[in-house]
Every structure is written in C-alpha cells, then in structure tokens.
Amino acid sequence: LAIGVPANITAFLYFSRQKNRNPVQAYFNRVYTLITLVDVIVCLTLGAISDSSLASNRHGTLFSTPAFCWVWGFIWGVLSILSVFMISVLSVSRLILLLFPLRILPATLARIIPALYLLFISGLLCFLLAAEYVVVYYDVRYMFCTLSGLAQRSPDYIIQATDARSEHLIRII
Question: Roughly how many angstroms between the first and final C-alpha of the chain, as a whole number?
C-alpha cells in the first residue's frame, strides 16, 4: 500500500497529462492511464487484506461483515479480470500496429472497449451470483473473500443443493 498507491497515482498523473503528438500516442496514453487507474484501485483494495493479516483470528474487522465480504469479493473478481484484459488490450494494440504500421487507432477506443468489457463482466458476475452458480466466501488460507464455483471451494464449505447447477455451468465455461 505504501509504495503501490503513490507510485500508481504518480504514473496515472504522468500518463493523463501527457501531450499527444499523434493519434497513436494519444491511444496508448489512454490505455496506460486506464491500466494505472485499475492498479490504484487494486492497491486500495489490499487494505482489507492487511487488516485481516494483522488480526489474531485471521478474519479482521472488515471481512467479518458478510456484506463487506460480498462486495469486496465482487470488486476483487472484476478488478482481477479487468487488469488482465487491459494488458491484453495493450498487447493486441501493439500487434495491430506491428502488422499495420500506418493504421491509426482512435483514442476513444481506449476507453470504449474497456468500458464495454467492464459492463459485460460486471453483468455476468451479477448473474452468476444471483443464480448461485458462483458464491463469495472467506478463504482463511489467503485471508480474503473470493468468488468461487464448486470445483474451487474450500473443504470446510457446506455444499448446498444448488452446487449441481454450479458444477455444470463451470464445465460449460
């Protein structure tokens, strides 16, 4: 937290204030700005893990609340998927420019594509949580709340009747 938040905020400010000489540079500045923004939010969410790691019961005060655990698990799941997606956007963009050097990538695409993907992932996770295909539970080994299907649940999790649907959907995905 002490290093990640200030360093990522500094990188965010640097990329957001860059003067863009050409459209390609503008596109990549926006991609890097979004990557650093996601990283700042990831670093801020790690405060709850610090709380649980310093607690004697390994739950901490924040993760002891079921509502906080559910919201944090959802946000953590979305952020981890979005972080990987943003690196993929960066890699695919570079590949496109290597294959087509004269191609101009519109800078607005750097915001539209991640925003649409964020909406899609959030909606998908909301559906999976509402249909009980995925659950949020506190994992004592890692000291944080996590999204999980049947195959990844900890041994102390009580299996419910909805788990058969959960296993079927995970195999499809």
Answer: 34
Alpha helices in 55-162 (DSSP H): 66-99, 109-130
Closest CA to 43 of 15, 87, 84, 83: 83
Amino acid occupying residue 155:
P
Task: Give the residue among 164, 122, 117, 118 at the shortest CA–CA distance from 147.
Answer: 122
Helices and strands, counts by H and E, the chain: 5, 2
3-state secondary structure of 78: helix
What is the model's pLDDT at position 125? 92
pLDDT, mean of residues 42-61? 83
Measured CA to CA, the distance from residue 38 to residue 85 in angstroms comes to 11
Closest-CA residue to 113 (of 133, 132, 86, 135): 86
Cα separation, 69 vs 60, whole angstroms: 11
pLDDT tens across 88-135, in order?
999 999 999 999 998 899 999 999 999 999 999 999 999 988 888 888
CA 163, 167, 168, 172 dihedral sign is: positive
